[in-house]
Amino acid sequence: MAEKRKILEVKGLTMDFGGLRAVDSVSLVVHEGEIAALIGPNGAGKTTFFNCVTGIYTPTKGDVLLHSKTGETRRLNGLKPNRVTEMGLARTFQNIRLFSDMTVLENVMIGRHCRTKSGIFRSIIRNKSVREEEQQIVETSYALLKKVGLQDLANEFSKNLPYGAQRRLEIARAMATDPDLLLLDEPAAGMNPQETDELDKLICKISHEDRIAILLIEHDMKLVMNISDPIYVMEYGKKIAEGSPQEIKDNPKVIEAYLGEETEA
Amino acid sequence: MLKDLKQSLIISAWFVFLTFPLMAVRVNTTEQLVEWRLINMLYVAVASFGLSYVWRYMLARKQARKQVDDNGNEKPSKASLLMEDMSFRYKAMGVLLVFALVFPLVFDTYQVNIMNLALIYVVLGLGLNISVGLAGLLDLGYIAFFGVGAYSYGLLNHYFDLGFWTILPVGGILSCLFGVVLGFPILRLRGDYLAIVTLGFGMIFQIVLQNWSDFTMGMAGISKIAGPGLFGFDMNITGSITYIYYIMIGLVVFTILITMRLRNSRVGRAWIALREDEIACVAMGIDMARTKLSAYALGAFWAGMIGVLFAAKQAYINPASFGFMESAIVLSIVVLGGMGSILGVILGAFILILMPEYLRAFSEYRMLVFGAAMVLMMIFRPQGLISNIRQKYEYKGNDLQEEIENG
What is the pLDDT of residues B32-81, one digit of tens each? Predict the structure, then answer.
């Protein structure tokens, strides 16, 4: 396998909440074009790991490095979430966080915010360049809605969407920020098998067509094993395994982490 | 139906029982007599029965309407359909503007003066609408910014003899700066905490005005503030009131235009996103500090401008005009009218300010009616008189592309 360009590199990330070590020196690398997965039992620290990477928490120790397309390397520790997003890291949330009183299209338009510039003064003047930028935002957002199959619901309030559609809208909104890496926090949670199947296809499509690397947290093993490589496994804040789906399936530590209590019983 | 009647009967009987000692029995102490005013009981019974029945009917109707919504067959009301019709909108706006322009010619000075007061609250409401309605920053000390505007004109006019037109933008900008300075410490707060801190700021502002007598003249206030000039013309009282009225209309139109443009812009969308979900908003790359401060400062800007005009109109200001009551009224205007809706806020301001003026006869019950109206609003129309209509966007690129693909 040819050496692919690294996008996200996390070295020895540690996060303490008081005396509780939620994430314990976890290292992880996501390369260009990869769909990496982070799995583990509930409470293993996966979402905390995401929050550290995206700037919602400042990690206690360790480095979060982002290698941009131009070859620059930036350290993301302690940056505000909006700066992290500007650098090219977009995320979705485990418990859906849409802007419920805005339309579907507007939700995606918010994602374009950090890639556009008009400020207060120019918004008041609303000259030609501002109008063009606005139209550009609308067109890009609409194209993204088409990609996730929500174009017919564009003017609907996002709170009125069915659950699966809300999840897809979150992905579209994150994609609107032009990310290099997309972090999906349990995208298939609460979906029925058919919706999961569609999501499966959508994630592959994003990875192939848009060349966006993806890191996802997921409990749906079928989805994870189908699409992702490599897979990282966490338990009690520590990384216990990494490798291809086959390696993970056969790894005794992973089996113990997931099934350990049942073998005892 | 029958159940409703029965319930209402029980309620009216309960009210009769409760109010019996108050309304029916009167002890005449001079003649050592007990008067029985049983006719009062009849009034109470009939009134409580009627009110309770109407109440139940309204609740049932609200419930019925909600069920339609759940089925997904949400039918927009006729009014909102009319609102979306652009040609109707323009016509309505034209008629309103003409009416506003001829108003002082048709009505007498008293009416114009009352209208001036209402227009002040329209601008205040629109300003607060930016921070509360759009950005979701509950501000209970908003009137302080109004005070900054009024006092900057009052003081600059008193000490340096500066004119109205010079101070109008200066007052706005000063108040805007004041907003930014206050905004910084409260960036991390949200919801109730923000409300309490802004309430505190409002109080501090008023107390400083009251006690810094050397500079602000304290409770005595500043008097003989010059009215707005018109190329050196001298005007009588009627003339100057009419003149202020026209300035006011100009300012209102200006405010509406700018708020409208901002609401449907990149900045406005960021404000609304901030209101909806702060964490998601930040994760989508929106700078929270900048967005919050801009909403707060812009809201303050309008309050400052209209404050200058207020000082010019009254020719006298003192700290009593900038108390918590005023903040509460402006907030009620926004809530009553509909958060985020421009037309709603204008309507709310007219209702809340003009009603007490024209219902002078009931002035003793003003606060009672005010409170009752608010409670009823929250139960029957929590979104306000006019709910916010989101802009529809046109995406031509899509159609164009298909045309190209089809040949």
Answer: 888 888 888 888 888 888 888 888 888 888 777 766 555 544 455 556 66
Instruction: Give B37's DSSP letter.
Output: -
Q: What one-letter code names the amino acid at B279?
A: I
Spatial contact of A241 and A251, defined as CB atoms under 8 Å apart: yes
- Residue of B265, B280, B294 with shortest CB distance to A118: B265
Specify burial of residue B213 (Cβ count, 10 A radius: 0-12, 13-18, 19+). Answer: exposed
Task: Please give the C-alpha separations between residue B12 and each of B3, B56, B348, B373, in angstroms, as whole numbers.
Answer: 14, 13, 33, 22
Say yes or no for a CB contact (<8 Å) between B390 and A106. yes
Among A99, A101, A134, select the one facing B280 at the smallest CB separation: A99
Is B270 in Cβ contact with A113 (below 8 Å)?
yes
Rounded CA-CA distance B319/B324 in Å is: 11
Rounded CA-CA distance B311/B225 in Å is: 7
Residues of B within 8 A of A99 (CB-CB) are 272-273, 276-277, 280-281
What number of CA atoms fall less than 13 Å from residue B278's CA on the CB side? 13
Measured from the Cβ of residue B59, the count of other Cβ atoms closer than 10 Å reads 13
Buried b (16+ CB within 10 A) or exposed e, A125-164: eeeeebeebbeebbbbbbbbbebbebbebbeebbeebeeb
* CB-facing half-sphere around the CA of A109: CA atoms within 13 A: 30
Please give the model's pTM, rounded to 2 decimal places: 0.84
Question: pLDDT of B318-361, one tens digit each?
Answer: 999 898 988 988 998 998 888 888 888 999 899 888 888 887 77
Preceding omega of A230 cis (within 30 degrees of 0): yes
Contact indicator for B242, B106 with CB cutoff of 8 Å: no
Directed axis angle between helix B342-358 and helix B237-263, to 10°?
Answer: 150
Interatomic CA distance for residues B243 and A134, integer angstroms:
39
Its ipTM equals 0.89
